[in-house]
Amino acid sequence: GRDRAAMVANVVTFRGKGALRAVGKVLGASEILLSQMSKIASSRYYRGAGTENIVRALKNDYEQQNPEGKKISWKLWMQLSDKLHSFPRHLGIHSGGFMLADKPLNCLLPQEPASMPGRSVIQWSKEDIEALGFFKIDILSLGMLSAIQKCFDYVDFYYQQTLSLHTLPDDDKATYQMIQKADTVGTFQIESRAQMSMLPRLKPACFYDLVIEVAIIRPGPIQGKVIHPYLARREGLEPVTYADERLRPILERTLGIAIFQEQAMRIAIAVGNFTPGEANELRKKIGAWGIKDFNRDLLPLLQKLESGMRQNGISPEFAEQILGQMRGFAEYGFPESHAVSFSLIAYASCYLKCHYPAAFYTSVLNSQPMGFYSPHALLQSAKREGIKILPLSLNFSNWDHGLEKPADEADYAIRLGFRLVNGLPQSTVDGFLQVRSQTGPWYSFEHFVRSNRLARDDLTVLAGTDVFNELGRDRSDAIWQAEAAPFQPLLDDQETPLRWKAEQSLERIQKDFKSFKTSLADHPVAVIKQQQWPFRVALQRFSLSSELTSLAPDSDVFAFGMVLVKQSPGSAKGMVFVTLEDEKGFFNLAFTPQIYTRFYRQIDHQPYLCVVGKLQRVNESHSILVKRVFEADNSARLLAMRGRHQKQDDQTVTPIELIKPRAFH
């Protein structure tokens, strides 16, 4: 029962930006200055640069615009922030640590109620629990499991097909063909830029190939420099060899290349003079993601392993490869069992996307927030796959997105749900949906208002979605009426609506994004190209993402698109990767450290990028090695329009905005 189970605590400490903000508040810094600091500290250009460099950059920028900046104690701000770094801030909850005991936990350790009802938190960290020898397991939730179950339910209800994880065919040819083409937006694990670039090269054709795919794009294999040798051996361009015959049974299934943590452990025993106990200790050390003291915790074991391999006649090249993997595994690496489990979920998501795409996208959209892509990117991908997207409707939409078969369509379309709307509480939606179920559809704006008596703020938010258009009120008029509703005891059905200027394309898209994170109008990139091109480069020079397959490798490519994802993995040696979206698909951009340093202000802060670079092609995988980022002219500015997730990890997120006339700030 609950008295014998509890979540494990996590000691949250002050980090760079948090320490700077906390000290800045104490020193009386304005919110404007703190926001400017956050913007600088969040930039990849200043990642790992240290407090001194961040404060110096902030000082230079701020004093240029504000003479009073010279009165700020910049040095004290920097010194106090450095001292506060790594100091405990508050007690949080570990993401998955869960302790079970055979007696009430109150007899063993201190607890406190969690913020979530019905949960308890142990006031000790996972390191404390492990040191005391208590039983702890990690239970991590996966949003994709919820999405898959929802999809099974939709397939059962709409297609009369009963599916489950254990009944899916494991060798579906169409599914693997889709995977090989990297058509994996929205799926599990293999939807990232790096994974999608690898899929056309590795070409998974069976389940174990998928296991390799899931495991190989990790810091362990990357730092061990095994990806290219594995692909070369897989394609028959390089012979399969073993540094020692004792390694054949360990590495035969992966073509002589160590990919999984278990293989590294077995290698340590076979040719590193490790006992099974020592190998298990090595496993524990590299399995503790984010080792706090590398020299203390892992370096002695790696030195022992290197010495053992040298004594056993292992080549220095292979030894360094294994040691590199160990260092990478200490950041993040996969045991084979973990990769197999994830691959099962990845395959299931791909099978559903391949055979029931409308149901799949609907289930993923109804499981947000999760995954690599925002609702906007998922809906755009669905549209490119031929799935019809139906707009929000007072008479047909529910809280969740749903499936609906239009009279003129052979397959189901996706009907948007009110969960997509910014600032609209589910309780409000549940209320008017209950009225709809009792009274039937609404026939006018006034009918809806009289039936529901919504709060003015909720009615205004609803009007901002343009959902009253189906009842004869355009967005501007509906917002006007919503704001005026509290001042009119009764709305007159016969009142003639005011005439409002029709929305222009860019205006409509901007309002849609502000209201519900996407737009069913033309893609913003297409509209900008057609109506308001703000760059001093001829539009005719630009290629669509769908045209990259017809271009010669190493040719110059001009690309323009909306920024979806930005990444700079620690294993990428300073490279920055950006995924752009245009009206036809995605561009994968790569920036060298030198190019990033030159253009980091645009890359980090502009929601649209206009670039030129060299086209790189490996099999069917394309990317652009950027040479230059173009600046928009002074007649353009950016208006807020969010098209990406707010995420807590490496994919730093800023609002996506729409280009409109006015100078940049």
Can you walk me through this structure?
By secondary structure, the chain is α+β, with helices and mostly antiparallel strands. The chain starts with a strand and ends with a strand. The strands form four sheets. Strands 3-4-1-2-5 form a five-stranded mixed beta sheet. Strands 9-10-11-13-12 form a five-stranded mixed barrel. The C terminus is likely disordered. It is globular and about 90 Å long. The protein has four domains: 140 residues, no CATH class; 195 residues, no CATH class; 122 residues, no CATH class; 138 residues, Beta Barrel (OB fold (Dihydrolipoamide Acetyltransferase, E2P)), CATH 2.40.50.140.
Mean pLDDT: 83
Radius of gyration: 28 Å
Count the DSSP helices: 27
Low-pLDDT stretches:
635-643, 645-665
How many extended strands?
15
Apparent shape: globular
Biggest pleated sheet: 5 strands, mixed
As a percent range, the share of strand residues is: 5-15%
* C-alpha end-to-end distance: 57 Å
* Strand numbers in spatial order across the main sheet: 3-4-1-2-5
* Structural category: alpha+beta
Number of domains: 4
Chain oligomer state: single chain
What is the percent of helical residues? 40-55%
Features:
5-stranded mixed β-barrel, globular, 5-stranded mixed β-sheet, single chain, 14% strand, disordered C terminus, 665 residues, 27 helices, alpha+beta
Can you summarize this structure?
The chain is an alpha+beta fold and 665 residues long. The chain is built from 27 helices and 15 strands. Strand 7 and strand 8 form a beta hairpin.
